[in-house]
Every structure is written in structure tokens, then in C-alpha cells.
Fold this protein.
Amino acid sequence: MVHEGTEPGELPVLRTRRQLVARSVVATLSLTVPVLIVLYWLAIPRGTWPYVAAVQLGLTILAVVGILGAKRMRVTVTPHGLECRKLLGRVLRISAADINSVVLVELYQSGTVETLPHLYLLDSAGGVLLRLRGQIWPRSGLENLIDSLDVSVVRPLDPLTMGELARLRPLLVPRCARRVARLGI
């Protein structure tokens, strides 16, 4: 959502969902802790526990990098366009002149009847400049981002599956997911 307390001189900022990091930590711990316990249980009698400790240290470093990266992710509306800080710290700058239109589509989540918004910023050729998924970014923040951009907005009336989106607008579906979407998997 747009950062609370934004004053007229400050730039609007879209931040990730608050629960994103907490849920990721719980999921990671619930997967790795039982596996590490079993590995230690098997490795300690054999004296190979330092190898398990090295793997645990590596996983811990990766987790800390991921958590810090997720907390720093944001999209900032600047006077000249957008600035998007990605998970690993890379900053993507998009000029306001390059943004031709916005597509906000509700996509069904695989295997459920729940939908989440997906926002696509498109250039004049219909290519995707930036895709923001509802799993990471809150709906209110996506709406505020649309309001801050002065471009045409396309909002399909009904929610779509990834396969339907691939048939209607193939450029919106990531290249790696197009074949899977065509097959209906």
C-alpha cells in the first residue's frame, strides 16, 4: 500500500505484504528443522556432524539474505516514473513515458477458487515492463499505484485462469509458463 504518513513532498511507496516474511520464515523452518534434526541424529554418532553444521550455516545465510531482501522490496513512484527494488537488491527504473497502459487482472490460484490481483505495466508494443503479483503486493497498494499513473487501465470483468490469460494475452504470461498454461497443467 502507499506508505502511511506520506506527505505532499514525499514519494508514494508500495511495500510488500506484511505477512510475507513471517509466512516465508515459518514455511522454511517447518521444512528445514525436521530434516536437520534427522541429519544431526544420523551424523553425530558417525562424527560427520560438522558437515551438517556447514550446511545449516549455509542455509541460515541464505535465509537471512532472503529475509533482508524481502523487507527491502518496494515500488516507488517518482516524478519521472517508477523505481522497483527487487528481492536481491536490483533496482529497475521505468520511465513514465515508457508506460503505455496497465492491466489489472484477477487470476485464479492453481487448484483453488481464490483469486489474486496481478498488475502488468505495458509498453506501447504490449510488452510487459513490470509484473506485480497479489501474493506479494497488497491489493490496496496496487490500486493506489494505478491511481498515481496517468495511463489507460484494462480490467477484465471476470477472473481468469493462467491458461485463459495465455490465450487472450500471451505476452502477459511469463515465457516459462506459456507451455504449461497451454497444456492446462
In short: Residues 17-72 form one domain. Residues 69 and 88 are 6 Å apart (CA to CA).
